[in-house]
Amino acid sequence: MRVIVCENYDEVSKEAAKIVASEVILKPNAVLGLATGSTPVGMYKLLAEMNKNGEIDFKDVKSFNLDEYYPMSADNDQSYRYFMNENLFNHINIDINNTHVLNGLAKDPEKECADFDKMIDEAGGIDLQVLGIGQNGHIAFNEPDSFLYANTHITDLTESTINANARFFEKIEDVPTQALTMGIASILKAKRIIILATGSSKKEVINDLINGEISTNNPASMLKVHKDVILICDKEAYDK
Ligand code: F6R
Questions:
Q1: How high does pLDDT run on average in the chain?
Q2: What is the per-residue pLDDT across 133-173, written as a single tens digit (0 to 9) for each?
Q3: Which residues are catalytic?
Q4: 37 lines ligand 1 (CB under 6 A)
Q5: Considering only the top CATH level, what class is 2-234?
Q6: What is the enclosing helix (H) or strand (E) of 131?
Q7: Which of 13, 39, 169 has most ligand 1 atoms within 8 Å of CB, for mutation?
Q8: Are 107 and 91 in contact, with CB atoms under 8 Å apart?
């Protein structure tokens, strides 16, 4: 895993945007794997600016998002579909039909998940996956456990993740307790992966990711088996 340590959040956003932009420049019909959460917001803003300036074109790009709360309607302002539209898709020239976010109201969640994996395969696989990381090491909603799921699946959120995500909701009881999420193999199948981490709350988990062993108790550590992963973090998250 290559590690890029940046001065601050803005520099992390710039580094990440450069990598995504170069992917799209080199492969105009690139398939991007995208994340929500607060960390990639700055990167999405820069990508929208680059698109506006004519530096990058999303016309033929496809995207697949890591996860969605369950149950959750797409037009709820807490949904990940809403987040992606607000933070990126509404500001770039991507064809909205080429953007894929799991349906948080799917009647048959298992089928929704299997269809999602199939759609990724049919699109030729993910060229570049963008990830954030939870304070407990989760990537997408693959939570620390004694085992991890390979494929896209429905999962329960841990107390730690519910607490961390409560900041986006009026009260903690409103945070959904389940989600649909890509699995570890779905993520590792991506050709390239960048993982972003900023702020001192990520210090412990980033230290464990860099120096610790591969363990299902830190799902992000599974990334160490992938041959092309770049961790982009700020100084606060990187504790030598
Ligand atoms: C979001 C996702 C989550 C976040 C993680 C970090 O799609 O899959 O794993 O990446 O919870 O969130 P932030 O960036 O808010 O710290």
A1: 97
A2: 999 999 999 999 999 999 999 999 999 899 989 998 999 99
A3: 67, 136, 138, 143
A4: yes
A5: alpha beta
A6: strand 128-131
A7: 39
A8: no
Q: Which two tokens stand for residue 200?
A: 């001192």
Q: Are strands 67-70 and 192-197 parallel, antiparallel or unpaired?
A: unpaired
Say if residues 152 and 189 touch (Cβ distance below 8 Å): no
DSSP secondary structure code for residue 215 in this structure: B
Nearest residue (CA) to ligand 1, atom 10: 132
pLDDT at 15: 98
Mind listing the pLDDT tens digit for each residue in 2-60? 999 999 999 999 999 999 999 999 999 999 999 999 999 999 999 999 999 999 999 99
**Strand-pair partners of 69:** 179
Listed by start position, the domains of the chain span 2-234
Question: Does ligand 1 come within 6 angstroms of the Cβ of 39?
Answer: yes
Asked if residue 143 has its Cβ within 6 Å of ligand 1, the reply is no
Nearest to 182 by CA among 35, 29, 76: 35
Residue 76, classed as helix, strand or coil, is: coil
Distance, in Å, from the CA atom of 184 to the CA atom of 167, rounded to the nearest integer, reads 26
Residue 105 CB neighbour total at 10 angstroms: 14
Q: Cα(191)–Cα(1) distance, rounded to whole angstroms?
A: 14
Q: Is the CB of 94 under 6 A from ligand 1?
A: no
pTM of the model: 0.97
For the record, the structure tokens of 215 come out as: 């363990």
Ligand 1 and 42: CB distance under 6 A: no
Residue 78 Cα to ligand 1 midpoint, Å, equals 13
Question: Model confidence over 102-143: pLDDT tens digits?
Answer: 999 999 999 999 999 999 999 999 999 999 999 999 999 999
